[in-house]
Amino acid sequence: xxxxxxxxxxxxxxxxxxxxxxxxxxxxxxxxxxxxxxxxxxxxxxxxxxxxxxxxxxxxxxxxxxxxxxxxxxxxxxxxxxxxxxxxxxxxxxxxxxxxxxxxxxxxxxxxxxxxxxxxxxxxxxxxxxxxxxxxxxxxxxxxxxxxxxxxxxxxxxxxxxxxxxxxxxxxxxxxxxxxxxxxxxxx
Length: 188
What we know:
Layout: H1 3-11, H2 28-35, E1 40-42, E2 48-55, E3 59-67, E4 74-83, H3 85-91, H4 97-105, H5 114-131, E5 135-139, E6 150-156, E7 161-173, E8 176-187
Antiparallel strand pairs: 1-2, 2-3, 3-4, 4-8, 5-6, 6-7, 7-8
Helix pairs in contact: 1-5
């Protein structure tokens, strides 16, 4: 199995809007049954269960199952896939960090983002096949540079269910550059 497919399989568990196999309104116990007991519970204004999964070669998945304080049901699922192209660039012999940042600003990270791009494309294609054509927003206003490649896909379902898939390159944290795919499921 190729790495992009492995990452895809670690993210997609079910067909349709409820891609993790956890529908909105599921109990917290159902989440633990499906995802396991290795999670962090965060309370406060946005309480959630947080799961961390290592996948691929150097990719990470973080999943937040949101719920209202005092309630026992999920009201949102927020999944982030992170990939770090700098690691693959270094593995291919890259040494001078300014060269890497030039590639980033020129929008030329594809060679070092193959696993991420492959998994992302499989996920978006699967969602389009099952849910239909999404509304798409592409803008430079979020991170304000074209090389950030911000693109958001949005699907609306019955009962005000809303699913978005957002992709972008995040270079906002020092010398760390990461590819990001965020899948967010909630009710409007």
